[in-house]
Amino acid sequence: MPEQFTHRAICQLHERGQVIRDHFVSQLLSSNPLGDPAERDLLVYLPSGYERSPNLRYPVVFALAGYSESDASLQNWLPFQPTLSDRLDLLTDQGLLGAGLIVVMPDCFTAYGGSQYLNSSAVGNYDDYLVQELVPYIDRTYRTLGGGRRGIFGKSSGGYGALRGGMLHPDIWSAVACHSGDLLFELCYASDFPTFCNIIRSAGGLEAWYHTFQTRIQKTEEDMTALDILAMAACYSPDPELAPFPFRLPFDLETCERLPDVWQRWQAKFDDDHTNIAYRYNVSLPKLAHVLWEGTT
User: Fold this and answer.
1) 276's torsion region: left (phi>0), alpha (psi -120 to 50) or beta?
2) CATH code of the domain covering residue 171
3) Contact yes or no for 124/29 (Cβ under 8 A)
4) Are 46 and 17 in contact (CB under 8 A)?
5) What is the pLDDT of residue 265?
6) CA dihedral over 270, 272, 278, 282, signed as positive or negative
7) Domain check: are 55 and 30 in the same one?
């Protein structure tokens, strides 16, 4: 780890920002199909000078957690891994963030482990939740610079959500950073399809497996592999006419044979339901002031 990000460097900081545990009651999530809570914590990092400079406004950045993680995950202490707020304090102390940033850590966790930060009839409208509810709320409640100085970033599923969100809403997000985002689905998901089929068949079917998963206190690595594919199907290929799981898998559970029509829906989810990705890349991303795209599969 670089010296400037060590535990020693963190402890030697003279000024630290603060993380506010705000709360937000969502109207858009109130009728989500999984029965997940509509009232959620909302972690907001405020830079060290926020309280003593009441007339100063700040750029705002939304931080999206990866799959099976949420807002609190970004603040978990791990050995040799500074928390997000630690990193922000260190960068501000080094003069790399100017007077600092406001950073919003939204909770978009679901019973399936994540939402991919998009709208799905099988999971809920999490893209709308971010753009239509949280963005206006943050601008009303905290001293942001608003449109034109608002960014979004994330890693893994959070990177996917950030990049896709920037492509869909260049009027909302002026800067985007995608770190190891879920983009090349053939590599980041398809290799787990045979494992998923074996796990579900061994459990006696999807409904039996999910019941066991819900009641098992200690989740296994196999559990999380299976839940990941289930969650992606709920996000990328929902089907409200099916029950008890209102989504379609992109393969046959017995043979693992790929189902082209469903797989096409998965692939289309990166470019907004059959809009050509090259077109959106050329039209939307140039409207953004800054784009960072790295380590993507």
Assistant:
1) beta
2) 3.40.50.1820
3) yes
4) yes
5) 93
6) negative
7) yes
Q: Which residue segment(s) compose the domain that 28 sits in?
A: 3-183+276-294
Same domain, 252 and 114: no
Provide block-wise average pLDDT over 10 residues at a time, the chain (297 residues): 60 79 97 96 94 94 94 82 86 88 96 96 98 98 93 93 91 91 87 97 96 94 96 97 96 96 87 46 61 64
Report helix angle 221-236 to 193-203, nearest 10: 110
Are 140 and 252 in the same domain? no
The predicted pLDDT at position 273 comes to: 38
The answer to whether the bond into 2 is cis (omega within 30° of 0) is no
Alpha-helix runs per DSSP H in the chain: 7-11, 84-93, 126-128, 135-141, 157-168, 185-188, 193-203, 206-215, 221-236, 260-268, 277-283
Contact indicator for 238, 122 with CB cutoff of 8 Å = yes
214 and 97 in one domain? no
The dihedral through the CA atoms of 259, 272, 156, 238 has a sign that is negative
Place of tokens 């784009």: 291
Torsion of CA 152, 154, 156, 158, to 10 degrees: -60
Q: Please tell me whether residue 208 adopts helix, strand or coil conformation.
A: helix
State residue 241's pLDDT score: 96
pLDDT at 191: 94
Tell me how far apart the alpha carbons of residues 186 and 234 are, in angstroms, rounded to a whole number: 17
What domain count does the chain have?
Answer: 2
Whole-model pTM? Answer: 0.89
Q: In what order do the strands lie in the sheet with 18-25?
A: 18-25, 39-46, 102-106, 60-64, 150-155, 175-179, 290-294
Angle, helices 221-236/206-215, rounded to nearest 10 degrees: 120
